[in-house]
Amino acid sequence: MDDIYFERLNDLPNDRAYTRIDFNRAMVGNQWLERSYSGFFGTTNSVNTKGRDIEWIVAQNPEFALSVNGESFGPMDLGEVDVSDECSELGAALLITKSNADIEVSMAITALHEVPAIMRSLSVTNRSSEDIHLDSVAMDILAWEPEDLTFWSNQFRQEQPDACKCESADACIAAISGKYGMLYGVLGEGDLYLHTPEKNQCQWVNACAKDLAPRETWTSPESYLIPCENDPFDTYRIHHAAMITQVKLAQRKASRIQQTLEEEAKALEAAKALEEESKDSN
Fold first, then answer.
1. Per the domain annotation, does 241 fall within a domain?
2. Could you tell me if 142 and 201 are in contact, meaning their C-beta atoms sit under 8 angstroms apart?
3. 8 domain-assigned
4. 169: three-class secondary structure by DSSP
5. CB atoms within 10 A of CB 251
6. If pLDDT is split at 50, 70 and 90, which confidence band does 254 have?
7. Which structural domain range is residue 147 located in?
8. Which end of the chain is more exposed for a tag (fewer CB within 10 A), N or C?
């Protein structure tokens, strides 16, 4: 069968986040940043600063590593890739899922509409009929590309040429190439590592130590990428706060919508019960 391509008749608004899914590639981005995934492997193959022609990572990345019941799993140990997308007031998201008979790994990668950030979380679901133990999750394992790249931690004041573990209170690093850079950070518990597992790679590890019952799901905190120029601390100070604000606003709105739906359902049930009571009395 011939490959089928879908093309948009009109360009997307350039002030809104977007997704695009082709037969061998999936992309998510906004007016500042774009992240692409392999449609075959479900791994990141591009992180690009828009308008700067800067490619930040190598073509294929380890992406994630799980330890389940003492056994290690990576993207290549799971099945085929399923890719979908969705859009909300917060941003546009790619949903990438890989699974085998026992576990399902889902990644949600969201480009924000109003903040120069792309966020990512990972979920692990127990598909088996027995409990499993999720020992740990290493995620967003990226191998960085520029030859002149330097890494900075400790609020971007200290260069880190060797393997190191960042303090939990300083869970953001800057990868700098010339006057441009990329912030890589985590919004939650976990340990951020530089030059690990290999030189010019980074990852964050969550030692979740979580028992999952059949069909139960564990979801990680979000990691994020934010492009920067000149002083990374100024970028962090402005856009990190804006990112958190946008996420909290979206969560509150979703909570209010859910509460309204539950209240309407209860009112409908009460109306039905009253109607049945009226019929019985007649």
1. no
2. yes
3. no
4. helix
5. 11
6. low
7. 18-235
8. N
- Asked, as a colleague might, if the bond just before 232 is cis with ω within 30 of 0, I would say no
- Return the number of other C-beta atoms located less than 10 Å from residue 127's C-beta: 15
Cα atoms found within 13 Å of the Cα of residue 92, Cβ hemisphere only: 23
DSSP symbol at 57: B
Identify the CATH number of the domain in which residue 115 sits.
2.70.98.60
5 part of a folded domain: no
Rounded to whole angstroms, the Cα distance separating 244 from 126 reads 30
Q: pLDDT of 10-25, one tens digit each?
A: 554 567 999 999 888 9
In a domain, 242, yes or no: no
Give the predicted TM-score (pTM) of the model: 0.84
Q: List the alpha helices (DSSP H) in the chain.
A: 232-235, 241-281
58, two tokens: 């190598």
- Per-chain mean pLDDT for the chain: 86
- The residue type at 8: R
Displacement of CA 152 from its chain's centroid (Å): 22
Q: What are the tens digits of pLDDT across the range 163-213? A: 989 877 778 999 999 999 999 999 888 889 999 888 899 999 988 889 999
> Residue with structure tokens 């986040």?
17
Q: Which residues of 56-71 are buried (b: 16+ CB within 10 A; e: fewer)?
A: bbeeebbbbbbbbeee
Q: What's the CA gap between 174 and 158, in Å, rounded?
A: 10
Return the number of other C-beta atoms located less than 10 Å from residue 46's C-beta: 18
How many domains does the structure of the chain reveal?
Answer: 1
